[in-house]
Amino acid sequence: VDTVPVAYVLVPPAATAKSLGAEFARYLGIPVTTRMTTAQITTAVCHTYTAAGVKLVLLDEIHRLNPRTTSGAEAADWLKDITERVGATFVYAGIDVTGTALFSGVRGAQLAGRASLIDCGVLPARHAGSEPFRDLIAAMENALDLHAHRPGSLPRLAPYLHERTAGRIGSLARLIRQAAIEALLNGTEKITRTSLDSIAADHLAEEHYRPRTPTRRRTNTGHPPGRGPRPA
Fold first, then answer.
1. Greater confidence, 56 or 219?
2. Biased composition, Basic residues: where in the chain (predicted)?
3. Where are the alpha helices (DSSP H) in the chain?
4. If you average pLDDT over residues 201-218, what whole number do you get?
5. Is residue 124 a contact partner of residue 132, using CB atoms and an 8 Å limit?
6. Fewer beta carbons under 10 A from the terminal one: N or C of the chain?
7. 77 and 173, same domain (yes or no)
8. C-beta of residue 55 within 8 angstroms of C-beta of residue 6
9. Are residues 157 and 106 located together in one domain of the fold?
10. What would the pLDDT profile of 77-111 be if each residue is shown by its tens digit?
């Protein structure tokens, strides 16, 4: 088994212990059949994750887990067991987790007692002397495969892109991806400020973004009302 230090798993809608286990298995290509029991899937997952050297498990869409339901309670119990049997750090990511049923009830309290809550806001343009948003743009630019694109041109647009996306990573990724697709389709093979302006971002970003237009100075070349030019 190849070494896989990080695993990324999505919590399925209306997750059960078996469907959640199947998602863990799917990430590492562990074959799962409908006839397999939850215990069999769990054994296969624990063995393969340990053999692959998984040290970090990112569990996304955790807000889909509802310990108040019978199936959700079973899934929460399964997750608790898997965290004890796999020697990895588990990171749960979700939306408004404190406002959902995730941490409610006895099983929810067990989950809450095993995790520290980190509130993730938008990515700031500057933080403690660094520029994390610009660094993220540079990393995304390095992943582009556009032959005519000038390296470093996107990081220079960091202030514009931060205003355009409100610092949201998802909005930034979608904007750059769509601009790259357009650059391939129209043959320019590069992303510029002009091409980015022509791309419609997601609704949330567009609601936030309000282009700044310079205010024109008014020049009064006429005469005050009721008064004409002074005769020479």
1. 56
2. 211-220
3. 17-27, 38-51, 70-85, 105-113, 132-142, 158-165, 169-186, 193-197, 203-208
4. 67
5. yes
6. C
7. no
8. yes
9. no
10. 999 999 999 999 999 999 888 888 888 888 888 88
